[in-house]
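Worked example 3 (structure in, sequence out).
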């Protein structure tokens, strides 16, 4: 799938929810660099395992992540037209991942990848469940891209975990990977959100501060359970139920593929 993001809003994709808009903008800013990082770790991990099913899943995972990287890189380039300092933030993220590839063990990078994938799977459930509220009156191109990405995160939610567990059973590393992903993601996002809100004239406004606080609280409420589930002894991502909205999204895409009506786009 491809998305005409250049025809969209270019940052403030839901003017009724500027803080949510820039929180998701900040989250996806790292994806053009994170996705290749994950692909590299998974490919190296697969070299150590023999299970053919896991290998096939890993190959599909890498293909999907490469597509995500390309789509988000295109959107990020578009964002820089209005928010030029994003290039600085992107460079810092890129260099931190270059350093990790050079200095960190494969086991750590797989733990980080598995933890991050658990976070994004829960974020995807949240997005699918709240899509009408989040994207009502919003830029349809951005919404289509994020819904597509969310659906594929649900689809391949078990792969990074399976590869990680096949390479190492280290429980401490499992926990460190999850908390490392949470900490790094927040550290990367916070200054980006502040910068984009400043460009759009929301910095210092009490109403914006209150809404941003509510977005943060919502993130804690929605993503907090990930930590408890992920650290449970019998955890496996396949035990986490697919949200009904995921099946509905797949059904809509199948309907488009089987013959969209006049004027209907694949992005919808």
């Amino acid at each position: 799938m491809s998305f005409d993001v250049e025809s969209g809003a270019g940052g403030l994709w839901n003017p009724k929810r500027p803080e949510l808009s820039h929180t998701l903008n900040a989250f996806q800013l790292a994806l053009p660099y994170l996705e290749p990082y994950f692909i590299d770790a998974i490919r190296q991990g697969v070299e150590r395992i023999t299970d053919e099913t896991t290998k096939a899943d890993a190959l599909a995972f890498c293909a999907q992540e490469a597509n995500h990287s390309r789509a988000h890189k295109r959107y990020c380039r578009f964002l820089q037209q209005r928010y030029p300092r994003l290039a600085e933030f992107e460079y810092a993220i890129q260099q931190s991942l270059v350093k990790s590839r050079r200095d960190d063990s494969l086991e750590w990078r797989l733990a980080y990848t598995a933890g991050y994938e658990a976070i994004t799977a829960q974020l995807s459930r949240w997005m699918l469940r709240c899509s009408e509220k989040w994207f009502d009156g919003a830029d349809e191109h951005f919404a289509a891209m994020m819904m597509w990405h969310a659906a594929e995160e649900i689809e391949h939610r078990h792969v990074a975990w399976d590869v990680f567990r096949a390479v190492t059973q280290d429980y401490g590393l499992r926990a460190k990977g999850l908390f490392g992903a949470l900490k790094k993601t927040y550290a990367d996002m916070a200054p980006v959100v502040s910068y984009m809100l400043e460009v759009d004239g929301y910095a210092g406004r009490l109403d914006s501060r209150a809404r941003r606080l509510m977005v943060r609280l919502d993130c804690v409420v929605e993503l907090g359970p990930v930590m408890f589930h992920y650290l449970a002894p019998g955890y496996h991502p396949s035990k986490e139920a697919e949200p009904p909205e995921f099946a509905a999204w797949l059904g809509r895409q199948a309907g488009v593929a089987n013959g969209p009506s006049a004027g209907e786009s694949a992005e919808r």
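Notes: The chain has a mean pLDDT of 92. The CA atoms of residues 52 and 215 lie 42 Å apart.
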